[in-house]
Design goal:
This protein is an alpha/beta fold and 225 residues long. It has seven helices and six strands; from the N terminus they run E-E-E-H-H-E-H-E-H-E-H-H-H.
């Protein structure tokens, strides 16, 4: 088998839209067994993060106020509820180091063909958003990246391959994809809920790909092309 590395589906919620400057306020992750493709919900990781400087008045810029209002609207609560939840969160440093230790539990032994022992990063729009945040946190808190350097699984890109020439779905937003596939979110734009929904969709496509790859003939098909 080409892959024996665990797949870790993860997601950040943040206090801003720019991955280069925002602060994470939630982090969740769920592992997928690489051979059975079982979503191990009982081994999930979930934490609320108190943003740095949250106790200072200057933290609440206009952009961050708008983001807090957006989170409140998505969850059907008041902005004060969002602020209280973030205020009770753990420090960024503690959550990040706990997450790195969590990912270490899913490392495999190095062997021939398995030069990268860390788990595979997976999620929705992780290449453009979540992984850059991970790299910032790794640099800031002087840790290594918790994921393997190769084989990222971004469900948004995977779905684009399948639907880029079709009329539906109308865009690449996760909410649109949920509606298209008939996935009922328990709470959209909440890190754990988004992670769990992404994991379920990713597994469906991995199962489909495995069925197709076992019956389609690829070897030698480009000879003379």
């Amino acid at each position: 088998m080409m892959n024996n590395r665990w797949i870790i589906v993860f997601d950040f919620e943040t206090d801003g839209p720019d991955p280069a400057t925002c602060n994470p306020v939630e982090l969740a992750a769920i592992p997928i067994d690489p051979r059975t493709l079982d979503v191990k919900e009982n081994k999930a990781f979930s934490a609320v993060i108190k943003p740095p400087g949250f106790n200072k008045e200057e933290y609440f810029t206009e952009e961050r106020q708008k983001t807090i209002e957006w989170h409140a609207k998505q969850r059907g609560v008041d902005t004060e509820d969002i602020i209280k939840a973030w205020k009770k969160g753990q420090s960024e440093k503690i959550v990040w180091k706990n997450f790195c230790e969590y990912c270490k539990k899913f490392e495999i032994e190095k062997s021939y063909g398995n030069w990268y022992t860390e788990p595979i990063a997976a999620g929705y729009n992780i290449l453009g958003f979540d992984l850059p945040i991970c790299q910032r946190l790794a640099d800031k808190h002087k840790t290594k990246m918790p994921f393997a350097k190769i084989n990222k699984m971004d469900l948004m890109d995977l779905l684009f391959y399948w639907f880029e020439n079709l009329d539906e779905p109308k865009n690449q937003r996760l909410d649109t994809m949920r509606e298209f596939f008939g996935v009922q979110a328990s709470q959209a734009h909440e890190a754990y809920s988004d992670t769990f929904d992404t994991a379920k969709l990713l597994v469906k496509f991995l199962q489909f790909h495995r069925r197709q790859s076992s019956v389609n003939k690829f070897k030698g098909t480009m000879v003379g092309a």
